[in-house]
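Human: If only I could read backbone structure tokens as easily as an amino acid sequence. Underneath my words sits a plain record pairing an amino acid chain with its backbone structure tokens. Take your time, and here it is.
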Amino acid sequence: MGRIEDVTSRIGIPIKDRSVPGAQIVELLAGNGVMVGRDAIYSVRSGRKTGDRIGARLEMTEILGSNSGKKDDFYGQIADVGTLVRATNEAGHYSTVGFARRIAEEMDLGEPDVSRCLRAMRTELVLSETKDESPRIKDLFREVAEEYLGHYRSGYSSSPVIKDIDAMWSRDSIEEFYRACAITMPAPHSLRTWMAYESDVLFEFYRLRKEMGSPVSAFDRLTLEKNVNGSPIESLINQVRMVTSIPYDQVVHFTHTNALLYGQPTRLHSGNGIVHDETLLVDGASPTSNS
């Protein structure tokens, strides 16, 4: 049974039953929050289209009405592995060298996808705090961030930047820390020295989310509703960046969508040879290769 048949059978919409008028199927789909035309139904019935995009939208409406457990399990595992594989340098600090690669090797993923997942996880952490839905981890975040700032405040080429972050961050919010980082370290890769420390916070964040039953987060909802409604990706990117200061982009959106649907960053993968399914970018755009 194909994906569209599996989803529509579960929901009770006979999309491939030619005895049911296409207009009736359109109404049934609309009742489940998915808007399509009759031509789309006829294309699936004739075999011209697989119906995967319709199926994905239906699955996303299901998640919106239930929970995001697949994603929380997957992201929690990334954070857990991160705390286990991180290495220390000669100064006894967590090293940035090979951090994402070691996670990728341990989980049989592509290294760029690990980096994108970490950015999505960071985005969800910050957005959850700004929406007052974050588990109580501010004290842990403050403790971990203080350790990071203390380790890199002197003796490194980046130390002047770290001192600026230290001075700008009042310790009152997680979002403020990342906003200070965005101002002083604008390049997306600049936070790599922080990632190994950040794993402790992200692990606890997803552990607590799973303990709460993995409710659909504000970030999950924005992601899913964008895909279901087909709204412009640029609007979502601008909104998320404005609120979080995280360099969130189209590829991170694509990665988070797949994490919600499949519990992995891509629909299909074989070791480090990733096979992307671009059908989920419902506005027709293809993901870029930027990590």
Notes: The first helix runs from residue 3 to 11.
